[in-house]
């Protein structure tokens, strides 16, 4: 079986430019704290997830190209070659997808930006329930985590298109301070990852609360 090629850094930059055009064309993003994103080196974006546009929105407003881990169900029809072409990573959420894990770690090893929805699926977008994957990538990849709160994307009032927030509505994207998930020992045991997940959850929840106060959302 042919192995999938490594995610394209150039493709991710093309995806970022497409995201810029789409997100600023359809909505009114207000971006706060983007200067906090490290300019170089591996970084993980941890994004709350309440709407389908959260990923494209972050891709369009982030200062660096982003490779998101995206559920394989989204790679259907023409979206499959398109998402792959812009450097996004297909992941099977029903199993330990070793191909996706290897490719995601490859992004970090190459000094790129990996985007993760740590809640695993769309929900309230409140970071209430995190999966262990974020801690694993942060500890194994030695990458700082930048928490990102996307607020306003799930507003249902005045929608013309059911799957989208109201066109030209304001969507706030708030970047937080980078932080390390590990305890400095480099341990990768189950206990260490569980402890890292607890630390991550506290940081992400705190960032979301601060973002809501800052934006009035």
UniProtKB/TrEMBL annotation:
Record-annotated Phospholipid/glycerol acyltransferase domain positions: 43-153
Entry's Gene Ontology BP terms: phosphatidic acid biosynthetic process
Pfam families, sorted: Acyltransferase (PF01553)
GO CC annotations, alphabetized: plasma membrane
Position of the signal peptide: none
Presence of keyword Metal-binding: no
Keywords: Acyltransferase, Transferase
Domain of life per record: Bacteria
Transmembrane segments: none
GO molecular function: 1-acylglycerol-3-phosphate O-acyltransferase activity
Protein biosynthesis keyword on record: no
PANTHER family: 1-ACYL-SN-GLYCEROL-3-PHOSPHATE ACYLTRANSFERASE
Name of this protein: 1-acyl-sn-glycerol-3-phosphate acyltransferase
Taxon lineage: Bacteria, Bacillati, Actinomycetota, Actinomycetes, Kitasatosporales
């Amino acid at each position: 079986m042919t192995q999938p090629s490594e995610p394209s850094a150039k493709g991710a930059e093309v995806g970022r430019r497409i995201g810029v055009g789409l997100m600023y064309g359809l909505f009114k993003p207000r971006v706060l704290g983007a200067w906090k994103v490290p300019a170089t080196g591996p970084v993980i974006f941890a994004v709350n997830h309440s709407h389908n546009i959260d990923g494209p929105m972050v891709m369009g407003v982030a200062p660096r190209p982003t490779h998101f881990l995206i559920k394989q169900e989204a790679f259907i029809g023409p979206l499959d070659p398109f998402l792959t072409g812009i450097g996004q990573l297909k992941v099977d959420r029903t199993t330990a997808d070793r191909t996706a894990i290897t490719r995601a770690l490859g992004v970090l090893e190459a000094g790129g930006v990996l985007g993760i929805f740590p809640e695993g699926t769309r929900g309230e977008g409140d970071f209430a329930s995190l999966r262990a994957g974020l801690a694993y990538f942060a500890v194994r990849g030695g990458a700082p985590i930048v928490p990102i709160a996307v607020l306003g994307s799930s507003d249902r009032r005045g929608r013309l298109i059911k799957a989208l927030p109201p066109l030209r509505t304001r969507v706030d994207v708030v970047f937080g301070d980078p932080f390390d998930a590990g305890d400095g020992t480099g341990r990768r045991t189950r206990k260490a990852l569980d402890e890292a997940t607890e630390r991550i959850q506290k940081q992400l929840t705190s960032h979301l609360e601060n973002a809501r106060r800052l934006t009035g959302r």
